[in-house]
TrEMBL record:
Molecular function terms from GO: hydrolase activity
Required cofactor(s): Mg(2+)
UniProt keyword terms in alphabetical order: Hydrolase
The UniProt record lists the keyword Hydrolase: yes
Transport recorded as keyword: no
Residue ranges constituting the Nudix hydrolase domain according to the UniProt record: 3-135
Record-given protein name: NUDIX domain-containing protein
Amino acid sequence: MRWDGADFGGAKLAALHDGGLLAYRRDDRPELPFPGMIDLPGGGREGDESPEDCALRELAEEFGIVVPSARIHYRRAYLLGDGATVSHFLAVRLTAEEVASVQFGDEGQDWALMPVADFIDDAEAVPRLREWLRHYLAADETVRYLDTTSKNPGNA
């Protein structure tokens, strides 16, 4: 899976285990985007990191789980609603040991390994992540990278 080096604003990660999805409830502060909503690991890019580095750094900061980038099996780029910012959505499978070792960080109210379908159906989950997760589930197993920015809208 190769990143083309194009600028992006951040990355989100679907961290999956046995039908479950690692998720957390965001802090309920009005200055935050999506206050109090259910979210996935991830956040803004720091320095010149790649989408994989960004998502995995956030996973380590938010949940204390360190995963090598070689385990990421899906990535798709999305152009956000402002028409300028690109965000990446990635997926990785966690082991039972990794889930059991979660050390929840200081961002957010609580965390859970929730059924994927429950996240998609929950009106309190971040809307675009519900959509991106649907795209992931619909993607063919051979899909490794889709660029759905304005240059290539993709069809997944």
